[in-house]
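General statements about sequence and structure are easier to judge against a single worked case. No coordinates are needed to read the tokens, only the vocabulary itself. The sequence in question and its structure tokens are set out directly beneath this paragraph.
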Amino acid sequence: MLDLDKLTPEQYRARYEALQIQARARAAAPKPVTQFADIARENIVSQDTIPPGWYACLRLHKGATLRITNTSGTPGAAFFMWNADETAERYNAGDTTKLQWTTNFTTGRVLFSDMGRVLASITADSGAGHDTIIGPNSPAQTTRRNGRDNLRSAAAKFGLSRRDVAPSLSLFSPVAVDEQGCMRWRGNPPAGAMLELRAEMNLLVVLSNTPAALSPIQEATGPISYIIWRAPAAGPKDLCRTFTEEAVRGFINTDGFFAA
């Protein structure tokens, strides 16, 4: 394994440029084929529907899969998670973006913690678009329930506080950068858009049915639903575990956490 501590500045620069070339080639390549498997009833752990403006606090065991469906095409859903075994470790939006050289989180991508480990993998995605830069809406944007307050309330139910909530992932939130370099809303996601996340650790998860901050509509327009189910175990050639060099290192760190 490469020892980063022994590289010279010139070697760091060369490695950076090589990773950049790889990232651009990967972005230009055909996207991985997404397949949502049929879920046998006996494999379902739990399922529910979240009404507009409300949220759910979920516990996922390592290896469980969470399927989220935007049944109504509502403009966004806030998502955040912590390592259930050590809640000081949590989702890191910045590392998830920069380590994978992309803001396009879809099938094959992983979600990193602030400890360089993989919390969850995106095993299937219908392509509605997800944002981890702008975040959920705030109290200043609506007189109704909002994403930021919901995340803090959910954290309290896990025995955590406001300081434990960092920048979150906004699901079903299609945004893009315009010619002036500004982030813009690209239109509401389609009804029926889906996303599947596989827990790579024991996780505490909050899923809030509230709009993204950039959405021109600042009230959820319908329900979202979720299913937690037992999927087949990931093999050594699993797409998410091998998709990028950064993901490989992240899984080495994650596997070491459970081997310790």
